[in-house]
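Tokens help. Our protein:
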Amino acid sequence: MSAIAELLRAPGPYAARTAEDDARFAAAMAEADAHHRARNPTYAALWGDDDARPCVPVGLFKRVDLATPVDDDGVWLGSSGTTSGQATRVFFDRTSMGRIQQGMLQIFLHHRVFDLRPSLFLVLAPDPTTGDHPGYATTFTKFTACAPVRERVYAVDPQGRLDVERARDALTRWGELDAPIFLFGLTVYFEQLCLALDRPLPQRHPVRGVTGGGWKGLARTLDRPAIVERLGALLPGGVDVRDLFGLTEHPLHYVSCPAARFHLPSYARASIVGVDGAPAPLGVEGAIRLESPLFASLPSHDLLTEDRGRLDAVCPCGAPTPALTYLDRLSAPTGTCAATAVTA
């Protein structure tokens, strides 16, 4: 069994880390190093004379074709183009997708974003089958695999405008049904929905929501706690809204804990880089660095993001692993999916 496959099979991915866990992760990262260096001369050239793995800035993937050739078939997905309007096109081959699906299943199971019953999905995104849409539309559609789909409604038009009537009609109809309800989408659309709804919509089941992207500095009127509070008043059957953190260039998306922090499973790591380029101690803010060996088609297993955050040893939720707090972007959000939604 490969080191990466063994990493994904490890029991208790959210348990307190042991020396054995660290050794397993190091072996999987070394396997990813060897894979990409052998097949990708451009990436191999980034390695220095000291043979230390390069931590690649996410912006480089938007400017240089760093893809690693793979033999599998698969699909292409584009990022939002956050660096000077440029986007990364990532090929999700079968090997990578199999690993990612296995990892995301564990993440969603841990946070209870799943159900065995046929469920209702309100997706605050365009229907990705109707044209060329931003990567978040495909991402949120993939997340609807967390339960059998009884009905799926897309409430954003092809021009990126929220269709409030379509969203209201779906939630009103579903309030009479005995089926779980999920609400996925960009946080700016959550805000627009909250501001547009003028009366409570009773539900028979609590609504589980996952938001992602852009609520720092892009919400026009409400901050995130106010969005969640207002949504709870509008859906008095109960809501559980979690944040999503991830990048197209990184294989995984992370779901926030009840304390709004992010805990990474055993097949990923996060650290903070200080202004001097050195690792920052716990509690100190800096650039978020993400590591995970799951991509076969992109050498982004050691990635320096354009996001600012902080790692803390203790989390109010009681999880035994360090807590990552996302703070904001280090670069202007112009060109992101969320910024586009604000101006639509």
